[in-house]
Design goal:
The protein is mainly alpha-helical. The chain is about 75% helix and about 0% strand. The chain has a two-stranded antiparallel ribbon.
Length: about 525
């Protein structure tokens, strides 16, 4: 009823409510009508998502650089584990600051800040004379990565129209995979240099993407939702007109953002006073201390999807691909790096496929099928590596199966769990909680990734490499169960409608007259709209 009445008011015509509702569905539901891609929103999403190249490149390049760092600096496996994984914990500082920073100075300038910090870190790593200095460079770069991880999906979600939000919000994951591939190629290209120069060139060249980012961000507009939070309605509607599929949708998005920000519907001046400035005060209380049933469900869903994405071992595969291939029987450095490049290409291809499927297939079915494929790949990889480990002779079929399952694992991850985690967590939080909520998700993501990265080599020594992947497979099964019961579909809904999808579970019964439509709702508390 609220949607119908709002439509009548905004159209300024005497249209019956039934027709108003029909117009709304046809105009804004991508299942009914598929408008052309908004080129301006597309360009904004690309520029913002370039920040994710920073993380991707660091992950990819360290997988190969670690081989030469260990030889040059004479460090142990534990020191290598810490070197590779610690950047995830360092990034928590950036992620913790990013929510409040982006609310204070805007999404756009937060992206600039992320690029500048990573640039400094890459230069420091490239000129590292010893292990301690290298760790300091990792610390600086980690802060920049933390900023980039939080701000890219938030900005992209806020400028995207509902019809293509899944497509555009998956761009950060696309660029992470692009960065990983560039890192792998960099490993192979600079591996021919001398031992002391090669790995330093691999790390130092990472400063280039951050320079390109700083230049590109000058062409980006500010997020319309941040502009509304600052009372700049005139600037916001200009951006909304450019990033929406129609003028009517732009007005609808503006009305919804105004309502979420507490601005009266009658306020239409270019600059208005916002009743409650959203700078982060009270947000954590709403998230954890006094959440509504819907917010509680959103928090559980967001933290859960980030945890299971990383706990299933993806960073172990991506960071330690050369080690895995060595355990499988490939001993030559060049062959290991080439096989790792194949991992990067596979991830990149399947993430591109996923971007075109998110708004067609939906988040939920794509995620569930993706995790199912990950479970199968992990258990098969664990079995093949265990057979190789216990065999006295080289088993060519097992080596081939190990390589194939590594590729199938990263493929199934990239087509669902990889991009959907960032899309889903960035779109489910209401406006007043979005920046801090997304930052919180990044914290869980990076902590889990850090634990996996800093324990993999030790874990393989303790329970064998096959045992490690059996463990990751078990975690992926738990994630599949969690996703099935806790994550509702969000495709085609505006960001301001999202909260109504949470706070309840759907329990399906047999379709018969006794149960009506065969669905009942189990509330997660009281005062939830049904």
């Amino acid at each position: 009823m609220d949607i119908q009445l709002n439509q009548v008011k905004m159209s300024d015509g005497k249209v019956v409510e039934e027709k108003a509702d029909k117009k709304f569905v046809e105009d804004f539901n991508p299942q009914k009508k598929k408008p052309k891609r908004n080129k301006y929103a597309f360009a904004c999403a690309i520029l913002a998502s370039m920040t994710s190249i920073l993380l991707g490149y660091d992950i990819g390049v360290m997988s190969g650089a670690a081989i030469y760092i260990k030889r040059d600096l004479k460090v142990t496996d534990v020191q290598i584990e810490i070197l590779l994984g610690i950047i995830n914990l360092y990034s928590l500082i950036g992620s913790g600051l990013a929510g409040r920073t982006s609310d204070a100075i805007g999404r756009r300038y937060t992206i600039v800040l992320a690029g500048a910090i990573f640039f400094a870190g890459a230069i420091l790593m490239g000129f590292s004379p010893n292990y301690s200095f290298l760790m300091f460079g990792r610390f600086v770069a980690g802060i920049g990565i933390g900023y980039a991880l939080m701000i890219a999906p938030v900005y992209t979600a806020e400028v995207s129209p509902a019809s293509s939000r899944g497509f555009l919000t998956s761009f950060p994951e696309v660029f992470i995979n692009g960065g990983i591939l560039l890192g792998y190629i960099s490993n192979y290209a600079f591996s021919k240099l001398t031992l002391k120069l090669g790995w330093r060139m691999m790390l130092g060249i990472g400063a280039v993407p951050s320079v390109l980012l700083a230049v590109g961000v000058l062409a980006m507009p500010e997020s319309p939702r941040w502009l509304v939070m600052r009372g700049r309605l005139g600037d916001a509607i200009i951006v909304l007109n450019k990033t929406s599929d129609s003028k009517e949708e732009a007005q609808l998005r503006l009305a919804e953002i105004k309502e979420a920000a507490g601005i009266p519907e009658s306020c239409n001046d270019d600059v208005v006073e916002v009743p409650k400035q959203n700078t982060g005060e009270g947000v954590w209380k709403q998230l954890f201390l006094y959440p509504t049933p819907a917010i509680r469900h959103i928090v559980i869903a967001a933290l859960g999807i980030h945890f299971f994405q990383q706990a299933s071992g993806v960073d172990a595969v991506v960071l330690y691909s050369p080690t895995i291939f060595e355990k499988a029987g490939i001993t030559n450095d060049t062959d290991k790096l080439l096989a790792t490049v194949a991992v990067g290409f596979t991830k990149m291809i399947f993430i591109l496929v996923a971007t075109f499927m998110l708004d067609r297939v939906g988040r939920r079915p794509l995620l569930l099928s993706s995790v199912g494929g990950m479970v199968f790949s992990l258990l098969t990889l664990a079995t093949s590596l265990t057979i190789i480990d216990q065999s006295d002779k080289k088993l060519t079929w097992a080596v081939g199966l190990s390589i194939a399952t590594v590729l199938s694992y990263v493929a199934t991850f990239s087509i669902g769990a990889g991009p959907i985690t960032w899309v889903y967590s960035s779109e489910i939080f209401p406006l007043r909680l979005r920046a801090q909520g997304c930052a919180m998700g990044v914290v869980v993501n990076r902590v889990t990734s850090g634990v996996i990265s800093m324990t993999f080599l030790s874990l393989t020594k303790g329970i064998t490499i096959g045992g490690a992947f059996f463990l990751y497979g078990g975690i992926a099964i738990a994630g599949l169960i969690f996703f099935y019961f806790m994550l509702p579909e969000t495709r085609g809904k505006t960001l301001e409608e999202m909260e109504g999808s949470f706070g309840k579970f759907k329990v399906k019964y047999d379709n018969n007259k006794e149960h009506g439509n065969g669905t009942d709702h189990v509330q997660l508390g009281t005062n939830v709209r049904t």
